Amino acid sequence: EDLSGVNSPPEDMGDTKDIAVAAEQLLEDEQLRKEIEEIFDRAGDKLRMEVAAMKKEQEAFTKVAEDQGLEYVESEKQRLSEAEESVS
After folding, report:
1. Count of CA atoms in the C-beta half-sphere (13 A) of 57
2. Measured distance CA(35)–CA(26) in Å, rounded
3. Of residues 24 and 38, which shows the higher confidence score?
4. Which pTM was predicted?
5. Please, what is the average pLDDT of the chain?
6. How does DSSP classify residue 72?
7. Do residues 18 and 12 make contact, with C-beta atoms less than 8 angstroms apart?
8. Ramachandran area for residue 14 (φ above 0: left; ψ -120 to 50: alpha; else beta)
9. Which residues lie below 8 Å from residue 27, measured CB to CB, with a gap of 6+?
């Protein structure tokens, strides 16, 4: 039994020109085009919200790191001051 053509597409399927024509015809369908635009609009909104959340989270991490850094600097200044006083 010859199974060589079982998994291969028909010869006329997948032609770039045919695909372009099919895509153009789909986009000419006003209702379908609007639905596609709505999908992309919703995806864009979700993406913007995620980016805003990530930015807010990064700002919070930066603030915590900054506060911890300032606390460290202040503790080192205090330690240095105490060491200088003990030497004097």
Report:
1. 6
2. 11
3. 38
4. 0.49
5. 82
6. H
7. yes
8. left
9. 33, 36
Nearest to 42 by CA among 54, 34, 30: 34
In the chain, DSSP assigns E strands to none
| Residue 39 pLDDT grade (very low, low, confident, very high; cuts 50, 70, 90) | very high
43 pLDDT above the threshold of 70: yes
Which amino acid does the sequence have at 54?
Answer: M
Kindly state the DSSP code that residue 10 receives in the 8-state scheme.
P
Q: How far is CA 25 from CA 19, 31, 39, 43, 83, in A?
A: 10, 12, 19, 24, 81
Number of H helices, E strands in the chain: 2, 0
Two structure tokens written together for 61:
């991490």
What's the rounded Cα separation, in Å, for the pair 17 and 35? 24
